[in-house]
Write a structure and sequence with these properties.
Number of helices: 23
CATH topology of the largest domain: TIM Barrel
CATH class of the largest domain: Alpha Beta
Number of domains: 3
Number of strands: 27
Strand order of the largest sheet: 3-4-5-8-9-10-11-12
Oligomer: single chain
């Protein structure tokens, strides 16, 4: 008996290439190429591991056609030299063991080049927004020189595309992708906000704007022949004022049809860090399958070509629905393979309940721009394919008695990983349930993915470890328990700012309002504009309440503290009507008002309100560490999760004095716990 997902698991053949199902692993920054631009053992193992999980196609992301001239990653593959063929051929062979087709996304990033040594060439000498944002974030003045491409240079780049495609074919590959999306070089020619040329490649008409893209396709097709699949990553819209619009994009897609077999539909500029989580990859602030309606007009216009739906497709149910509706021929996903590399196989076998679903937290994106290997927040073995082939951990030798104190995400991950290695694990929790601060995060109404993660991990911990609830693990408890290893995962406590009136009946923690355990009036003041505060403000404002957020930091500082989720979070808050007062401090709280001070001018004012919600950050429970770290031999005591947060080097808006960059996320918790548990 086959799978219940008949559309997903129906093979499709294009030009003699059979795709065993309709799931593609889409291109992404992975971070495993060598500095010389060739395949590394880590890259080979990582891509083979994804192939083993069941997708029909895996596409390597952002492969440079000439890394020496134009690069926007330090660990890209470089297709400008035959030296890359050996590694690609070997990786392709290993992936084909699983019936998986290997592809590569060929790209020239143009004005988005920002790796030292690269030079920015573009249709017109206009600096890209991503370069400017990175310079602002670093506090530097970038090299703003963008060189306008000459005709001779254009012809040379076209030749490089063809050379790169030929090298893929020499490596035995039957499928390649050209990156025409996200305002990389070809998209820069397409877009009226990056192309101001006055020659035959200029913006005068769609014919001239698309000339470069058509000439690249013509050259590639001539070089690889008609039997190789050409797949186009294509932006349906720039999502920028004055940029490429959807109707134009559909018409351009039609113009490119003679050379294209498959279209991957995406949207937006990818390079500016502020837009990644808001417009392109899309976080939990956006609905699932965000580009479903975006993709529909392309399928209608390109009926005789295969179309791929991408972005925020979280599971096989999503994919089956899209295929049934006829919106696409294939469904692309990447982040779900980070969360659970075997997602396709588990659905095929009817084991959906075993899938660890992506929570769309954008944790992986916080590493990619810094040229680090991409991790996952809910699957910390992600990225360790070479170290742990097939995700098989090294058995404990010998097994030991492990006590984990605290059952937040760090404690639960430590318990799971230690148990998987064969240790005898107990986990002790002072509350009457497992989950710690993870439960609070999952109670935000629009974070449904977090709730699914809670429901996935807690039963596994209960099965893997002896669970001790309603128990405070003090030194006497640990000494009496006498574990061989003690892992302290006590987490962090809510910070209570030293403000008169903060203990009043109208004052609650933000998470208490999120889970509905306290009454909330019609007018609300939230103290703190970090993620917890802003998300609580969004919940209350979307429920129809008047909400004001008071934040001590500047807007730039508060935004930076939210990482890759910042733009999406702030925009949703603005749409909900949340008012945020930056560089203001709360001086006192009364029954019907909050008194605040403008830190720039010293001016005082009052905000009338019914309810005050505290989101003033957290502090690690260092007192637990101090009490327990000498209860057994110190060399067998380990700290994980929030307890590894660093003291801040500057005053923080939440008053906690602790650096959020060093902790405070699910990803930090699970990954620090995993690293300890695989070593004990």
């Amino acid at each position: 008996m086959g799978s219940a997902y008949k559309r997903v698991f129906e093979p499709k053949t294009i030009k003699g290439v059979t795709y065993k199902n309709r799931i593609f692993c889409t291109p992404h920054v992975w971070g495993w190429g060598s500095r010389e631009g060739i395949v590394t053992p880590e890259m080979e193992a990582s891509y083979e591991r994804i192939a083993s999980g069941g997708p029909a196609l895996v596409t390597m992301g952002n492969v440079a056609i000439n890394m020496q001239e134009c690069s926007d990653e330090i660990h890209q593959l470089d297709m400008s030299d035959d030296k890359v063929i050996f590694g690609l051929s070997n990786m392709r062979r290993r992936m084909e063991r699983y019936g998986c087709v290997l592809s590569a996304q060929l790209n020239y990033c143009g004005r988005n080049a920002h790796w030292p040594g690269s030079t920015m060439y573009a249709p017109s000498p206009i600096t890209g927004p991503g370069i400017l944002e990175r310079a602002d974030a670093a506090g530097t003045h970038p090299e703003m020189i963008v060189h306008e491409l000459t005709r001779e240079h254009i012809y040379r780049i076209i030749g490089w595309y063809a050379d790169a495609a030929e090298r893929l074919k020499k490596a035995g590959m039957v499928h390649l992708m050209l990156h025409y999306a996200h305002n990389n070089l070809v998209g820069q020619f397409f877009s009226p906000i990056s192309n101001f040329r006055d020659d035959e490649y200029g913006p005068m008409s769609l014919e001239t704007r698309t000339r470069f893209g058509r000439e690249v396709l013509e050259a590639v097709r001539r070089r690889v022949g008609n039997d190789m699949i050409i797949d186009l990553r294509f932006s349906g819209e720039d999502v920028m004022p004055g940029g490429l619009q959807r109707d134009e994009a559909v018409e351009i897609a039609r113009m490119l049809k003679p050379w294209v077999d498959i279209y991957h539909i995406s949207c937006a500029f990818h390079n500016p860090p502020s837009t990644i989580g808001d417009r392109t990859t899309l976080s939990y602030y956006s609905p699932e399958m965000t580009l479903l309606e975006y993709t529909r007009p392309f399928k209608e216009a390109l009926a005789d070509r295969a179309v791929v739906l991408t972005t925020s497709v979280l599971n096989i149910e999503n994919a089956e629905r899209a295929l049934e509706e006829g919106v696409c021929d294939f469904v692309g996903m990447f982040r779900p393979f980070l969360a659970d590399v075997d997602i396709v196989k588990k659905y095929a076998r009817g084991h959906e309940e075993e899938v660890n679903q992506c929570i769309r937290c954008e944790y992986h994106w916080s590493f990619a721009p810094d040229y680090k290997p991409v991790p996952c927040a809910v699957n910390p073995i992600c990225g360790h394919a070479l170290e742990f082939p097939g995700d098989r951990l090294v058995p404990a030798a010998p097994p030991r008695r492990v006590l984990v104190v605290g059952s937040g995400p760090a404690g639960m991950q430590a318990a799971l990983t230690a148990s998987e290695r064969g240790h005898e694990v107990s986990i002790v929790e002072m509350d009457d349930h497992l989950g710690g601060n993870l439960i609070k995060a999952a109670n935000v109404p629009f974070k449904a993915e977090f709730k699914k993660y809670v429901n996935w991990i807690i039963p596994r911990v209960e099965k893997a470890a002896k669970v001790i609830l309603n128990t405070r693990a003090d030194a006497a408890f640990v000494e009496n328990f006498a574990p061989d290893v003690l892992i302290i995962a006590a987490g962090a406590a809510d910070n209570v700012p030293p403000v008169p009136g903060v203990r009043g009946a109208n004052v609650h923690f933000a998470w208490q309002a999120d889970d509905g355990s306290v009454p909330v009036g019609d007018s609300v003041v939230v103290i703190g504009a970090g993620l917890v505060g802003m998300e609580s403000a969004i919940v209350q404002a979307e429920a129809g309440r008047k909400v004001t957020v008071v934040e001590m930091q500047t807007e730039a500082g508060a935004t930076a503290s939210k990482g890759m989720l910042a733009t999406a979070c702030v925009k949703r808050a603005e749409r909900a009507g949340v008012k945020t007062l930056y560089r203001h401090a709360v001086r006192s709280i009364e029954a019907d008002r909050v008194r605040i001070e403008d830190l720039a001018s010293g001016a005082l004012q009052e905000l009338l309100c019914d309810t005050v919600l505290l989101a003033a950050g957290v502090r690690p429970r260092q007192e637990v560490v101090d009490e327990l770290r000498h209860a057994i031999p110190e060399c067998d005591v380990y700290l994980v999760g929030d307890l590894t947060m660093r003291p801040a080097t500057e005053n923080l808006s939440d008053g906690s004095g602790w650096s959020k960059a060093a902790g405070g996320t699910i990803g930090h918790a699970t990954n620090t716990a995993f690293e300890v548990a695989v070593a004990i």
